[in-house]
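For concreteness, we quote verbatim a single protein encoded this way:
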Amino acid sequence: MKKLIVSEENDGIRLDAYIADNMENLSRTAVKRLIEDGNIIVNNKIQKVSYKVHENDEIEINEPEAKEVSLEAQDIPVDVIYEDSDIIVVNKPKGLVVHPANGNWDGTLVNAIMAICKDSLSGIGGEIRPGIVHRLDKDTSGLLIVAKNDEAHINMSNQIKDRQVKKIYYALVRGIVSENEATINMPIGRSTKDRKKMAVTKTGKEAITHFKVLERFNKYTLLEVKIDTGRTHQIRVHLSEIGHPVVGDEVYSNGKNEFGVKGQLLHAKVLDFKHPITGKDMHLEAELPQEFLDVLDKLRIK
């Protein structure tokens, strides 16, 4: 157990931010999980993540021992774009769930990564999310970073939190987008009509998406998309909101299924970040999946 006493200059800071700033081995995500699990108490009381600390508050931090991962390593083909002793970057195929959850306890990217990395994965993600720093939706393909140790995990999490990781996606959307470039700045939160969906809502969190037209077709547009924030389903929600849903998106495109594809034609193509240990500038790219290329070829023939 570790103890912290809040100093005067830290008065008024959020509890999760204060602890993350004062505990080098804990990311803000890890701190949030500890608070929600009751492993962090303030003046002998459990507080919310958003609690504002006060001078002389006594904070006790109990870090439970890492649980043994009970998941099975599975030989699932995954395209490894980059790997060293600290991180592995994969090109996740469409249809592959990132980590186990209800209804998907195996056959996930985590199971595949466990087979590749053996015992070298960060434990910060928890028992069912070892090494997972960020995520992609099941039917979004492309680049995803996995941490092999806790130091790399914390650094990458902080880079993402501080918006230092540049992510570029390619999306084929319905309709002809008139603007060559534009920014969508609309808050996103849980839909009040369907709790399984996200939506643009006044009470949502800030969400910023930039896009640029790469190619226009008859009734469709290929976009390059960059995001400043990483809200759940952000790109899909934003593009649907402006009347240009992603082709194949079964949730946000009124159920239409063009070209016989299953799942959205959305691909995380480029990642730019600093290596979490060496500080080296990293630039990685993953080519579009064959299915995506086949649809583009069909559109170019028309």
In short: Residues 14 and 50 are 5 Å apart (CA to CA). The longest helix spans residues 150-161. Helices lie at 15-22, 28-36, 109-117, 150-161, 234-241, 290-301. DSSP finds six helices and 15 strands in the chain.
